[in-house]
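#onboarding

Welcome to the new folks! Below is a worked example of what a typical request in this channel looks like: someone posts a single protein sequence, and someone else replies with the predicted structure as tokens. Don't worry about understanding the tokens yet, we'll cover that in week two.

Example request:
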Amino acid sequence: MRKLIVLAAPLALSFAAPLFGAYPGLAPNQSILSGLKDTSNFSSSTTQYGFSLSNGALDPALYINSIDLVPGVGYDANIGLSAPGVFDTNIGSYSLGSPIAPGTGLFLYNAVSRSGNVDSSVSNGIYDFSVQVKGGYDTSATDVLGDLAYQIRIANGVQVTITSITATPGTISAGQSTVLGVTVTNNDSTETWVNTTWFVGAVSQGANTLNFDSFFPNPAWDWFNKSVAPGDSLTGDHSSFSADALTPVGAYSPNVGLVGGLYNGDNFYLNAPGDPLVTVTVPEPTILGFAAISACLLLRRRRA
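Example response:
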């Protein structure tokens, strides 16, 4: 999902540089993402710019000591991008000045980020900025590890919704599963919706939930980087769920959806309708009868 553009390592070591080798290169996750002025159709919305870093197995621990946003020409501070105090990574949270062990592949997801609506005073368009990452092989190092170029496109919004959700079959019992499908419809007149991924909260009945089985109920379908043009819809399998012997009977509602925006990599969460969808019942009498006969036969064998 992340397009990696490897930056060039330093061409030569300065007199003060470590003798064991050059710093590893950094690669941005996405070169352009979006920020929207109207996010009312989304349950949450964030725009995150990050990078990947691979510390060599033979190199010492590496430290990131500062991450700074450098505005481009005409950049508007009201866009609201900033660096958090603690960063999210594939190996847990990361604080500036913490060591990155040798042989570690690090994906830092939120070098700079923003959330919610963009201020209405910001003009629509594309803005340039860069993220400068500094550090080195000790906690006081200020060498430039990477100078990553990014863009953010500011737009009014994208009027996209999940217009239906289905379950096949709609009624299950213990030991059975159902496949959810969703239809996403783009009612916007100008913007194309680009799906980044999809998510599962739960298919629930109060505190009771169905068992989540898979994001790939149909191996031929996925929601990565799917586009829906203005006025179009897209339908596909979403995920599968099942019931077991401990699952209470009744109607279960979904908390599932899609994630996307104007670009692959955007993080605008689009929830599916939450109406009752999957009904869990007890097995049919014939099935129960078969189970009872089987139990009796087993009991006779044990007594014999």
